[in-house]
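[DERIVE STRUCTURE TOKENS]
===
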Amino acid sequence: MPSAAAPRIESASPLSPRVAPPPSWRARTRTWLCLPTVALCLALAACVTPPSTPAIQARVDPVSVFPMDAYDQNVDHWIDPASASYDQPFLSAADQRTHFEALRARYFGTAEGDASPWNRAYVDTRVYRDGGADIAALQRRRIAEFDNTGKAADELGYGQNFRPHTKAWIDAIEQNMDVGQFERAPGYSSARRAIATGNALVRELPTIDPSFYDHRLAGEGYPFDNLQVSAAHPGTPLYVLGSSLDGGWYYVQTPDVQGWVRSDEVGLVNDAFIDIWRSAARNGLAAVIVASAPVRDNQGTFRFDAPAGTLLPVAPDDSATQRSVMVPARDANGHAVARIAQLSDAQVSTAPLTATPRHLAMLIKALIGRPYGWGNADFYNDCSSETQGIFAAFGVWLPRHSSTQMSAGSMTDLSADTPAQRLAYLAQHGVPMRTLIYIGGHVMLYLGNATRDGQVVPVVYQDVWGLRPSDNSRRAVIGGSVILPLLVHIPEDSSLQSLAGTRIFQISIIGAPAEGTPVQLDDDNPAG
């Protein structure tokens, strides 16, 4: 959530939280924050004096590239294939089963408490908890947030042409939204159930146009499109809450977030389709374990690229070398039909994949080095979508928001400790492979410990934008998925803020402790 007032508190935030122009409603509320479980994140905003327009104009090149040459990105050097624990689960089988059933309930469940978009009870009591008035109010606040009328230069939203959006631009979007629709039919309708038939970018407003803050501000401009929320993977159950007047957009509830998606990436579903899909999902789900798997159905038609963590029902196998999965397709009338596709064992695995260091290393190898994508911009991951996709393969559902991923396990708040104390606690008490670290707007996965200059240091995997100095005047961009040690000081540039020195520092350990010895990383790694 962009804010000059405080670090951005959202899944798409960088390694060092970004500080954006002055606070506004949208700066405190991302789309997924309208969900009840994350409303408390609104309290994290505070107020500071915004930069003046001349200050923005005086900024020169607030972006540099952080040198990564000294940091070994060979996953096998950090998760050692020769280790005795390489094939030893870091989550117990019972714990994985519990998580996996919760994940399936969130996607396909029918019980009263199951937060599935296909579940009538959930839609009526949670999604429409205020009779649609809250959804309509949210749309109006978003319109006001992206309306440049009367705003100072440092508050303006810009297009990709470096020019502020016009009043005509936001007025056209508002008219197309038909905000009143959300209060005209505030209740469940079986005809509004749907499924993502392709990769669907989830947007704040029904437009593909980006909205950037001034690129001369540190941490602003590309890729930080403030209209970008997330992405719904192919096969994701949806509930359509509304549609644009031109028919090009649906406003949907996903298992994670709410937002606008292109209607041609959505197929409406009926009881027959849902019965087939749910039945197949009960028999088994396949998880994509590569960065992106091209999917072509048995009729030879290309359907979509399936990102890592995509879950598709398993279909009866008919080949020794290929795995059959069900894929959704959109027919000419906008309805979903089920098709069959074959993917190799190198592309998908039966979910849940056993949570071993070997399998985690396999997933990290598929993703490491890929570009950072704010809110899944360009269908790349940000910090929380990276961890979400990895753990989905293990059958563990994580919330889409970095801060609420702390709820997935047993959380310890170390924010009152010094940076050195935080790192010492993490190195001593963190459980490798299943400990998440939240530093306010950014989440990382703890892999284990290494030794640097005779000192034990934690090592983390993360999808990150960059580092910043304490005055927030610039960014040292990393811009992708990397393995790095957590240090009290950054040796390449002492002015850069340590990740251990942020205002918030929390750790969350997922699941019950599994038997066996925790993984210890290679002490001789040059990055340590």
